[in-house]
From TrEMBL:
Subcellular compartments: Cell envelope
One term under GO cellular component: cell envelope
Transmembrane helix is among the record's keywords: yes
Keyword set, alphabetical order: Coiled coil, Membrane, Transmembrane, Transmembrane helix
Record's protein name: HlyD family efflux transporter periplasmic adaptor subunit
Species assigned in the record: Neptunicella marina
Length: 417
């Protein structure tokens, strides 16, 4: 009779050991697979193709960079006083000018003819004055001569009266004849008085006539002066010392009254006008220190004004200089500027990587000591300037990071050679 064989069921502990062994085998397989695949996709980057920034600790200045040019706030615009044709250009933009230097000459034949006409009329009025004075002198001589003759006649009449008075007393002549002599003397006295009065009135009349003629001459002289001024204004002159900035005219061009012909800017009070992006301009305040580069030198200054208008996504900022500029600089000269908006003491910072915003969390590759390997590391950024960025967390002073844009990589570790 066959014996019955009874097999014991596997214990629970045996099943657990089997499960753990299977899990271990699978995990090892997965790890080996990942390592194998990673070895097949190892990324190597040339050191010459990347930018490296070292984390530093200390004072960080938040700077904003911009570009622009020099500008004269006391720029004078010169316009044509009268219409004319440009006949001569004596200076070009960029030339240094003194006050009253002639920049260009215009010609207007009508003004030239008007001056000649006014000068002829003035000469005519002056000749009329001389003629009037001659006529008055002749008239005065005539009246004076008549007065002299009357006085001579009076002297003779007085002598007659005295003589006949004696004869009448002696009875030689009649009393009637003596009275006639007295009447003749009195008549001459009256005539002399009338003649003197006439001469006095004639002087007043002559003086008034001369005054009227002199007024005509003065009025005509004003016309001549006006014509001369208009003609002189055809020579466009610098009204102040400085640099000729613009000259929007050409030789032979006809210029209308009021048209702009030139502009002159002073050179002793130049300021810099810098274009800043509208996003960065919001951080700039009046009085912020700045450094302006005017090749080959740099000059310190302060923000004077921030234009409230935005043009092509840019804002214009005016910077005044702390010291006089050399004579070699000129208006409209290209300049670069760096404006300091804030200073942060005792902080970590590194050269600013590309395409980053302040306050965000990023991943950068940190280099090892021999610069042959870099491992991706998480960083929290703080404030940012044009060339530096603050590190709030994730890095230590002295560490070096690749600051080139490597966002296209998803590897945690890369090789550098």
């Amino acid at each position: 009779m066959d014996k019955l064989k009874i097999h014991a069921a596997p214990s629970i502990h045996s099943k657990l050991r089997l499960l753990l062994l299977s899990t271990l085998v699978i995990s090892v397989f997965v790890i080996l697979t990942v390592m194998f695949r990673s070895s097949l996709h190892t990324v190597e980057i040339k050191r010459t193709d990347i930018l490296i920034g070292e984390v530093k600790q200390g004072t960080m200045q938040l700077n904003i960079d911009g570009f622009g040019g020099l500008y004269s706030p006391e720029r004078q615009l010169l316009t044509a006083v009268n219409s004319g044709v440009v006949t001569e250009i004596l200076h070009q933009p960029g030339d240094r000018l003194k006050a009253d230097d002639i920049i260009l000459r215009l010609r207007n034949p009508a003004l030239e003819q008007q001056l000649k006409t006014d000068q002829q009329n003035l000469a005519s009025e002056q000749a009329n004055l001389r003629k009037l004075m001659v006529e008055q002198k002749r008239e005065m001589l005539t009246e004076t001569s008549k007065l002299t003759e009357l006085k001579s006649q009076l002297e003779i009449a007085s002598l007659k009266r005295q003589s006949k008075q004696q004869l009448q007393k002696q009875g030689i002549i009649s009393k009637l004849e003596f009275i006639e002599t007295q009447l003749e003397e009195k008549q001459l006295i009256n005539n002399i008085a009338l003649s003197q009065s006439k001469i006095s009135q004639l002087k007043d009349i002559h003086n008034e006539s001369i005054n009227i003629q002199q007024l005509k001459i003065s009025q005509q002289q004003d016309k001549v002066n006006t014509s001369q001024t208009l003609l002189e204004d055809m020579n466009v002159k610098a009204t102040q010392a400085g640099i000729l900035q613009t000259l929007p005219v050409e030789l032979g061009q006809r210029i209308d009254t009021g048209m702009e012909v030139a502009s002159v800017g002073r050179t002793d009070n130049l300021i810099a006008r810098i274009n800043i992006s509208q996003v960065q301009a919001a951080q700039i305040k009046l009085g912020n220190p700045a450094v302006v580069s005017i090749w080959p030198d740099t000059f310190s200054g302060k923000v004077l004004r921030v234009d409230p208008l935005v043009k092509d996504k840019m804002v214009m900022v005016e910077i005044g200089f702390d010291q006089p500029l050399p004579d070699s600089v000129k208006p409209n000269q290209d300049v670069n500027a760096q404006i300091t908006t804030q200073t942060i003491e005792n902080t970590l910072f590194v050269k600013r990587p590309a395409n980053l915003q302040s306050g965000e969390t990023v991943y950068l590759y940190r280099l090892n000591d021999n610069y042959q390997q870099a491992r991706r590391q998480r960083l929290t950024l703080g404030e940012m300037s044009s060339n530096l960025v603050q590190i709030v967390s994730g890095a230590s002073a002295g560490e070096r990071f690749i600051i080139s844009d490597l966002n296209y990589l998803d590897n945690d570790v890369i090789s550098v050679h």
